[in-house]
Design goal:
The complex is a heterodimer of chains A (about 110) and B (about 110). By secondary structure, chain A is mostly beta strands. In chain A, about 0% of the residues lie in helices and about 60% in strands. In chain A, the strands form two sheets. In chain A, strands 2, 4, 5, 6, 9, 10 and 11 form a seven-stranded mixed β-sheet that branches. In chain A, strands 1-3-8-7 form a four-stranded antiparallel β-sheet, with no helix packed on it. In chain A, a hairpin with a 3-residue loop joins strand 4 and strand 5. The radius of gyration of chain A is 13 Å and the shape is globular. With about 110 residues, chain B is mainly beta. Chain B contains no helices and nine strands. Chain B has a five-stranded mixed β-sheet, with no helix packed on it. The chains are: A mainly beta (about 110), B mainly beta (about 110). At the A-B interface, strand 4, strand 5, strand 9 and strand 10 of A face strand 4 of B.
């Protein structure tokens, strides 16, 4: 398995609180992604990064921000969590050829 | 981005060969076709990738016709553990905005 670690793996938080999910890779891959997965919607791209400090929006970026200050870390932040952001969040990395996924972070906003 | 269309679900009996199709009518010249497998509560896992004709590995075969507007993932002699969602993804190497469709839920029946 690709060296991808997501943290936390499970979190319950209250509406309106900030939440940060961390993705750490040991593969030195250039590209990193954050997806969310919800029933009936499959995997949807939130944000992606093509290098340190280089990020761009995906198809469902509203309410999310990201940062990549080091090659190995890609952070996803929910500035003010809402119930609609309850989901499973997957980090992924790519060398430009194949995408490898982390094991997911389950977030519940109550 | 090349959009993909897959059947929503399909059932198959254990021991049979399963063929899963994907349509990608607007595939671009530089695009590759990649298939992923996802089990419940896990991140998607790479199965196979191809550009044209046929590709085979220890897990599956991928058939791509000359016009490349569709592809077929073939799983030989499926077992119960092959029950999963299968995603077809189309994009060029280095394409950073790879979008997944909703996938095909394959259920293997004893």
């Amino acid at each position: 398995d690709a060296g991808i670690t997501q943290s936390p793996r499970h979190k319950v938080t209250e509406t309106g609180t900030p939440v940060t999910l961390r993705c750490h890779q040991t593969e030195n891959h250039r590209y990193m992604y954050w997806y969310r997965q919800d029933p009936g919607h499959g995997l949807r791209l939130i944000h992606y990064s093509y290098g340190v400090k280089d990020t761009d929006k995906g198809e469902v970026s509203d309410g999310y921000s990201v940062s990549r200050s080091k090659t190995e870390d890609f952070l996803l932040t929910l500035e003010s969590a809402t119930s609609s952001q309850t989901s499973v969040y997957f980090c992924a990395i790519s060398d430009g050829n194949t995408i490898y996924f982390g094991e997911g972070s389950w977030l519940t906003v109550v | 981005l090349a959009k993909t269309t897959q059947p929503i679900s399909m059932d198959s009996y254990e021991g049979q060969e399963v063929n899963i199709t994907c349509s990608h009518n607007n595939i671009a010249t530089n695009d590759y076709i990649t298939w992923y497998q996802q089990f419940p509560s896990q991140g998607p896992r790479f199965i196979i990738q191809g550009y044209k004709t046929k590709v085979t590995n220890e897990v599956a075969s991928l058939f791509i016709p000359a016009d490349r507007k569709s592809s077929t993932l073939s799983l030989p002699r499926v077992s119960l553990s092959d029950t999963a969602v299968y995603y077809c993804l189309v994009g060029d190497n280095g394409n950073n905005r790879l979008a997944f469709g909703k996938g095909n839920q394959v259920v293997v029946i004893p």
